[in-house]
Design goal:
The chain is mainly alpha-helical. The protein is 74% helix and 0% strand. Helix 14 (280-294) packs antiparallel against helix 16. The longest helix is centred in the middle third of the chain and has 35 residues, at 187-221.
């Protein structure tokens, strides 16, 4: 299959999204995992890094997702329903990403290493004559089984009401700890992982506390109602109002991280969307896609800078410009995905309506 390493990166990001709820984690991980392989097999550097940055957006759309949890808390919606709503849109975007890669491989084969002499070579054909260590079938089977167990246990438990999303996080952490021990983690590694989780989670928890204060302040001062009146009394059609919201999300994505954007806008935009007739669950997915797409936009696209910093030791001379340029098609595909969900909200609402 032409472009198979890029397709594997997209597929891997989709699977990784079921395990982690942070797109930045996906971008950092696959920059170190996928990019060296694509580079070794002759892929265009910008295209390879753009694929990593673009497909890492799936980390916030396919559950479990930090953004979905934050959105549910801010708008007082069912987190389980939002989780379920993200499945089909996430798979839709992943499919469109794969089709884009196949199109590039067909029309510009040199971009994916075809004709460079590297595409199709074996692991033993290393420049220095040495072969890289291959993963054994047993190691692969253990890792694949572990991922499936985490996905089924966490998401299945939430969907079927065995435990809440919060309890599901605990179950996932416990299973992850067991898998880590099986894979060779020692006491020191466990302590380091706990500290790393603390450094990641503590700022988010503080943001959730402050956003509760922010939401209460908006309600008490009447500012949210005033903004809502501006939109509803403007005479604009509903699709125009949604377009303005998406443009605001894109603009904020250039300078602010995704959780901060959501904290600033979700409590204001969600009631407006309901007032103009949009399903709140479908609008949640539209908002999450728009916010994530904003993280690919210059000048401060956070995902692009994450990829750049992750491959600094491999490509110290690589600038962010080719990464921004190569991630633009993925931004366009996400825009297409938003338009499809706006016009066909059943893409997002079908699964929640069947499960809840």
């Amino acid at each position: 299959m032409p472009g198979r390493l890029a397709i594997a990166t997209i597929t891997g990001n989709a699977l990784f999204s079921f395990v982690t709820g942070v797109s930045i984690a996906s971008a950092a991980a696959f920059s170190r995992i996928a990019y060296p392989e694509m580079k070794r097999f002759g892929y265009h550097k910008g295209f390879a890094l753009g694929t990593v940055a673009g497909s890492s957006c799936l980390g916030m759309l396919i559950p479990p997702s930090v953004l979905m949890i934050v959105w549910g808390i801010l708008t007082e919606q069912s987190i389980g329903q939002i989780f379920a709503a993200g499945i089909f849109p996430g798979l839709l975007l992943a499919t469109l990403f794969v089709l884009y890669v196949l199109g590039i491989a067909w029309f510009r084969p040199a971009t994916v290493g075809i004709g460079s002499g590297a595409e199709g070579s074996s692991l033993a054909d290393e420049p220095d004559g040495t072969a890289e260590d291959e993963v054994s079938n047993l190691q692969f089977f253990i890792s694949l089984t572990g991922i499936i167990v985490v996905i089924v246990a966490v998401l299945g438990g939430i969907w079927f009401g065995i435990f809440t999303p919060t309890e599901g996080a605990g179950a996932g952490a416990l299973i992850g700890l067991a898998l880590g021990i099986i894979k060779g983690m020692r006491f020191r590694d466990i302590i380091d992982s706990i500290l790393l989780v603390g450094r990641t989670s503590a700022p988010i928890l503080l943001l959730l506390v402050t956003t509760s204060l922010y939401s209460r302040t908006l309600a008490m001062t009447g500012l949210a109602n005033a903004i809502e009146s501006v939109f509803l009394d403007s005479g604009m059609e509903p699709w125009m109002i949604i377009t303005v919201m998406v443009l605001i999300w894109f603009a904020l994505g250039m300078i602010v991280d995704s959780i901060s954007i959501m904290l600033l806008t979700a409590a204001i935009f969600a009631p407006i969307a309901v007032q103009i007739g949009y399903d709140p669950i479908a609008f949640a997915i539209i908002g999450i896609i728009a916010i994530e797409a904003g993280l690919l936009t210059p000048p401060f696209g956070l995902l692009v800078y994450t990829v750049k910093s992750s491959i600094h030791e491999i490509e110290p001379e690589m600038s962010v410009v080719p990464i921004f340029k190569s991630s633009t098609p993925y931004w366009i595909i996400m825009l297409i995905g938003m338009i499809l969900i706006i016009n066909f909200p059943e893409i997002a609402t079908y699964l929640p309506s069947q499960l809840f």
